[in-house]
Amino acid sequence: MSLASINSQIRNTEQSISNLHTQVGLKQDEIDRLNRAIAEIESLQGDYEESRRHWQDVQLSAGTWKGELADKFEAFRDGELAASFRDVSEAEVERVLDELQQAKSLLVAEVDNCQMQIAYKQSSLDRLHADKRQEMKS
């Protein structure tokens, strides 16, 4: 193999490795964003459950609160407030979290694949450098 051919293959392999490193970086950034989103949703999910329990468990005795204002509060709590909490069910939140976890798993697999390709190309590059040294000796 000629020195020019070896040099060309070295440049191509180095460029390919560089591109793979860029892909890994981009995918790692996506994984980080997904991790932050998952953590935020899980945190909000806990806040959501705590808030739901808080407004559902508010019991006002007739001696504490009565009359039209108490009736309006009960109607609001049982109507509009309850509906807003039903709009986002726990199952829906779990589904979203599952989808985010699946997307993260896919990206992790893609990163692993890129890293295997980098290792393979690096060994090819090492072989090309050895070929170049051998060619330069002869």
TrEMBL record:
Q: Name the Pfam families on file.
A: YwqH-like
Origin, by domain of life? Bacteria
Which InterPro entries does the UniProt entry name for this protein? YwqH-like
Coiled-coil ranges (or none): 27-54, 86-117
Carries keyword Coiled coil?
Answer: yes
Keywords attached to this Swiss-Prot or TrEMBL record, sorted alphabetically, are: Coiled coil
Instruction: Report what the protein is called.
Output: Uncharacterized protein
The scientific name of the source species is: Terribacillus aidingensis
